[in-house]
What we know:
The chain is an alpha/beta fold.
Amino acid sequence: MNAIGTMLSVKDAIISLKAGSGGIGACLVDGKTGEVVERGRNRQYSPYFRSDMHGEMDLLNRYEDRVQKKGGSSSGNDPRQCGGLILFTSTEPCPMCLTRIINSGIQRMYYINPDLEGGMAHRMEQLPPFWRKFAAGRDFRQAECSPQLQKIAEDLFRHSVRSFAKQKE
Length: 169
Ligand SMILES: [Zn+2]
């Protein structure tokens, strides 16, 4: 499931960049069966600017809208039960996305390209205490994949960072 998760994330990052958004893709894989549950990608700049539409946000929006889990703290039904889902993403999640992933209940998240400048997964100890505690015990780390695939994920991400810098000039 590592192979399908990482390959599809990178594939969707390519699709995203071609569509005029950031080069980041993400997907949800069932950790027990290896089945692809949902795919997502960055949609921040196309069809129109949406500051929340990072790849991981798009992925979780699609999954949660489709599954429509019911429940909450008063119902005794925990909508954060994610049944062994693994979230793959082509670049390390930013603070917004990492917090969203924690809130979703997903226990395993593997990213391909580490983002030392903007990524939050490698500095979990800097989360506010509530979120740090909420995230305790989760398996969030860099995905195992070939160095070639990691380089492609990095190039796709860097390409969108460069386009963004150009827009600001
Ligand atoms: Zn993000």
